[in-house]
Amino acid sequence: MTTTLIAGGIVVSATGRVPADVLVDGERIVAVLAPGSVLLGSDLAASVDTVLDATGKYVIPGGIDAHTHMELPFGGTAASDTFETGTRAAAWGGTTTIIDFAVQRTGERIQDGLAEWHRKAAGTCAIDYGFHQIIGGVDQDALAAMPGLIDEGITSFKLFMAYPGVFYSDDAQILKAMQVSRDTGMLTMMHAENGPVIDVLAEQLYAEGKTDPYFHGIARAWQMEEEATHRAIMLANLTGAPLYVVHVSAKQAVEQLAWARDRGQNAFGETCPQYLYLSLEDQLGASSEQWGRFEGAKWVCSTPLRSRAEGHQDSMWQALRTNDLQMVSTDHCPFCMKDQKELGRGDFRKIPNGIGSVEHRMDLMYQGVVTGELTLERWVELTSTTPARMFGLYGQKGVIAPGADADIVIYDPNGHTSIGVHESHHMNMDHSAWEGFEIDGHVDTVLSRGRVIVDGGVYHGSAGHGRYVKRALSQYLI
Ligand code: DUC
Ligand code: ZN
Ligand code: ZN
Ligand code: ZN
C-alpha cells in the first residue's frame, strides 16, 4: 500500500482552518499532524512513499455532488455524460463522490430501474458514487419496495411535482410515499414545481408564438415553485416525513423553507451554481452567430433561471450564509446543443432540460469565497461536509480525519481557472453553460481513496476505480 504525506497545507473543514500535514496509508487517512512532525520523526518518514507539497494551498475533503443525472433519459434523448465521462469531469473539478439518481419509470419495478443504473455505472466510474431513487410511479408495489432500498444503501428518494405524464406524482401519491419516508427515515427529496399549471402556461405561450428558450422560464413562474414548495412542506408536516427540496431557485421558495424550519420542521434545501450566477435576463439576451436567439437553450433547466431584477440570486447567496439552504449541488444534466437542445428549436417545450456543471461546482463556489459571499469554511461545508451528513456518508466522506477515505483536494488560492472554454472542459458537451467564467483559484491535486487521480493538470484516474458506496440514513434526522 502506498503511503502519501500531504505536507505544508492549510487543512480546511466546516468548522475551521489549521496548518497541518495529512498522512494517507492505502485508501484511508491515518493521521492529521502538526506541520513537519512526520519529517522529523524518522520511523514514519521512512515509510512515506510520496510527499505532496501543499505549501500555500488549502487541503479540503473532496467535493460531494449529491445531485447528478448521468445518462438521464429526457425528452426523447439522454443526458450526454455517461458515468465514465461525467465522473472523470467531476474528478478534474475536485469532486470525488457523486450521488446520481436511479430512475424508476412509471409502470416499471423499482428494482428493475435500480438494476439498470447499477449496470450503467458499474466498472466505469473514476470516483465513488451512490444513488438516490427517483420514484416515477408511486403505486402499491413501489410503496412496498421502497423500505428495501435502505439495505441497498439508498436512503433517499425523489418525487416530482412537475412533468405530468413522465416522472410526476400527484398529492395522494406524495402523501403515501411520505408516509414511507416517516416510517423508515428515508429522506424525501422533492422537485417542487406545480407541473400541471406550468404545462398549461407553456402551451398558451407556444400558441401565442412565444417559442424562444426564454419562455421556458416565463412558463415556470416562481409562484408555482413557491406554491409547490409550500405544498411539499405541508404534506411533510402532516406525515412527519423529513423533506429535502432540490434545486431551489426562487427567493419565495427559500422563504417557505425558512418558515418551515423556524417552526421546527425537518425541512432542507439545496441550490445550484446556475441559480447563483445566471439569470433569466442573461437568457433573454443570449444570442450567437451559430444559434441566434436559440443560444438561450443552453440555460434551459428546471427549475429555471430566475430574474436578477427580482433579486433571486442575491437571496440564494444570503440563504447559503444563513443556513436557510444547506447545500450546493449541480443537478448536472448535460445536453449538447447539436441534436439534443436543438430538438426544441421553434418550441421551447421540447428543449431537454439541464445544464452541465459537475466539473465546475467546487471552483464556482470557491469564487463565492473570493467575492466575500461565503467563508472558506462554509465553502467546504456546502460542497462536502453537509452533503456527506445529509446523505449518510459522513465519517467515510466529507471530512479530513483518521479513518476517513482519503478523498482529498489540494486547492490553490493563487491559481486561476478559465472555466468557460468548452474545448477545454472534460464534460461530454459541445458547449459550456459557463463560457467566460474566470475563477481566482485552481484545483491542483485530487486524491480518490488515496490514489492521486489529478495532479498539476495531468489526469491519472481510470474508469472503474470508483466504487458504489452504500449510504446510511441521513444524519439530519431528528
Ligand atoms: N431538471 C433539469 O434541469 N434536468 C433534469 C430534471 C430536472 O428536474
Ligand atoms: Zn428536478
Ligand atoms: Zn435533477
Ligand atoms: Zn495551480
Automatic annotation (TrEMBL):
Please provide one cellular component term from the Gene Ontology annotations of this protein.
Answer: cytosol
Q: Identify the keywords attached in UniProt to this record, alphabetized.
A: Hydrolase, Metal-binding
Molecular function (GO) terms listed? hydrolase activity, acting on carbon-nitrogen (but not peptide) bonds, in cyclic amides; metal ion binding
One Pfam family here: Amidohydro_1
Q: What is its EC number?
A: 3.5.2.-
Where is the PTM N6-carboxylysine found along the chain?
A: 158
First-level EC class: hydrolase
Report domain Amidohydrolase-related positions: 58-196, 307-452
The Swiss-Prot or TrEMBL record lists the needed cofactor(s) as: Zn(2+)
What processing steps or modifications follow its translation?
Carbamylation allows a single lysine to coordinate two divalent metal cations.
Hey, which family's this protein in? Belongs to the metallo-dependent hydrolases superfamily. Hydantoinase/dihydropyrimidinase family.
What's the protein name? D-hydantoinase
Species of origin: Microbacterium lemovicicum
